[in-house]
Amino acid sequence: MQHIIAVNSNCYHGYSIEEAIEGISAAGFRYIELTATKGWTEHVFPTMSFAYLCSVKDKLKSAGLDPFAMSGHCNLMDRERIGDFIANMRLATFFNCDFIVSSIGEAHLKDKAVASNEEVASHIRELLPALEEYDLTLVLENHGEHSTGKIIRDIVDLVDSPRVLINYDTANVIHYAGVDPLDDIPTCVDKIGYMHIKDKIGGLQEWNFPALGKGHVDFPGIFALLEQAGNACPLSIEIEFTSAGPRDLNEVNEAVRESYAYLKGLGFEI
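and the corresponding C-alpha cells:
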C-alpha cells in the first residue's frame, strides 16, 4: 500500500526551517510537515513577514519538498486560542497544505471540571466552517489526557465530519497512557486520517523518542494493521530525542537518514 511519507519539521526543534529543509531533502524525502506551534517550534508562523514566508515557500520548491501538512497545535478547548488556530489554518492554505494537525489541549472548564467528550466535540465542531473555507482536514492527535486512539475516536465520531479525523501518534499512546498501539489502533483504525510514526524507548512519561527502528515500537505490526484495514493515510516521521535534546544538527540529520533507511528496509517507496 502506498503512503505519503513525510518528516515533521519539529524533528529540527531548536534549529531553523532552512536547516530542516536541507536535512530532510538531503535524506531523500519528498514531503514535509511544517511546524507552527506557538512558543515551541515556530518554523513558520502567521506573524512572520510575507516576504519571509515566500522565501520559505521558494526554498521548499527548490528542495523538492511538498509541504502537504502543518502542525499547528493550539489548545482547542481555550476559546482565547481559537483565533491563533484560525491564523494557522490561513497559513496552512498559503503553503497549499491539505492537513492541519493539533492535539485537543487540556479539556478543563473554568470550574476545574473535566469537559465531557460531547463538550469537546462541540468546541471542535465550531471549527468546521473555517475548515471548509480553507479546504483543510483537521487531524486530532492523541496526546495528554486524550492519549489513546479510542478516546479520540469517540470525539471524532461525535463531531461527525469528514473534515475531522485522527492523527495517531504511535509513541504518545505509550508515553501518556502506557497502552500498546497494537491494542489501541484496532479501536480507531477506520478514523485514522494521518499518523505520526514516532519510536519510543522506556515507558510512561519517559521522554525518549529516537530515530525509527531504535526503540521498541512495533512498526511492522502497525503497518500491517493499516494494510488490513485498507488505510493508506499519510505517515509523518517525528523524532524528539531525549529531554536533553540532540547533541547537534548532525545528530538530527543522522536520525532522519536512519529513519529513511529503516522504512526503505521495510519495503516502502519514499
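(Above: one complete record from the training split.) Residues 5-265 form a domain with the TIM Barrel fold (CATH 3.20.20.150).
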